[in-house]
Amino acid sequence: MKLLDLYCGVGGASAGYAAVGFTVTGIDLKHGKRYPYTYIRGDVLHYLQDLDFLRSFDVIHASPPCQTHSITKHLRNAQGKTTNKIDLIPQTRAALIASGKPYIIENVPGSPLIDPVQLCGSSFGLKVRRHRLFESNLPLKGSVCNHKMQGRPVGVYGSLNDVIPKGGKTAATIQEARDAIAIQWGIWTELVEAIPPVYTEYLGKQISKTYE
């Protein structure tokens, strides 16, 4: 089956779906040099207006920019940084519903997703915690956190090798970050936004069963 990954970034989500057997195409504005599957460089909002294009895929995954909802916005604000990102979830959802295709929208806790399930890295033996929410028009099952077994997680956010006052510690090296999130081809700025492939492999298996 063909799967479209919108706002695909470095391809963490794509890798999980590919592991299940989906043929994946990703779209993003970035150069996509390290994206490992079929890649279209372009404005996702443009493609969302093309319902015939969306309907040429069996399943659509979308990860709209999350900076407006992420808990790390507090760290960004404390550091005097800003973001020009806007909330693209409503218009993304509207287009995916209009397509009539099975879809999944991913975002961070606190984002306005509808009846989402949550996944956590501790559920899959990862060193990152990275809670993420997934909304879908298909029945999906989330995971149960296992923070105690995981212990202190490796942070893949903010800056490399950084200690957050009264908080966590980020990965000391890029290799530690890659190992923690299980994406060996990304650079730091890509990994901080990426979805661990094991998340979408877990969801992709559930989706595949609906087609059996």
Short description:
With 212 residues, the chain is α/β, with parallel strands linked by helices. 31% of the residues lie in helices and 15% in strands.
Task: Describe this protein with a few key phrases.
7-stranded mixed sheet; 31% helix; 212 residues; alpha/beta; 7 strands; Rossmann fold; 9 helices
CATH architecture, please? Answer: 3-Layer(aba) Sandwich
Gyration radius over CA: 17 Å
Q: State the helix count.
A: 9
What integer is the average pLDDT?
A: 92
CATH superfamily membership: Vaccinia Virus protein VP39
What distance lies between the first and last C-alpha atoms, to the nearest angstrom?
12 Å
Domain count: the total is 1
- CATH class descriptor: Alpha Beta
Question: What shape does the CA trace take?
Answer: globular
How do the SSEs run, as a string of H and E?
EHEEHHEHHEEEHHHH
Q: What can you see in these coordinates?
A:
The chain is of the alpha/beta class and 212 residues long. It has a single domain (2-210), classed as 3-Layer(aba) Sandwich (Rossmann fold), CATH 3.40.50.150. Helices cover 31% and strands 15% of the residues. It has 9 helices and 7 strands. The chain has a 7-stranded mixed sheet with strand order 3-2-1-4-5-7-6, with helices on both faces. The longest helix is centred in the C-terminal third of the chain and has 14 residues, at 197-210. The mean pLDDT is 92.
Topology summary:
Layout lengths: L1 E5 L5 H9 L2 E6 L9 E4 L2 H5 L2 H4 L4 E4 L10 H6 L10 H11 L3 E5 L9 E3 L12 E5 L10 H4 L23 H8 L6 H4 L5 H14 L2
Parallel strand pairs: 1-2, 1-4, 2-3, 4-5
Antiparallel strand pairs: 5-7, 6-7
Helix pairs in contact: 1-9
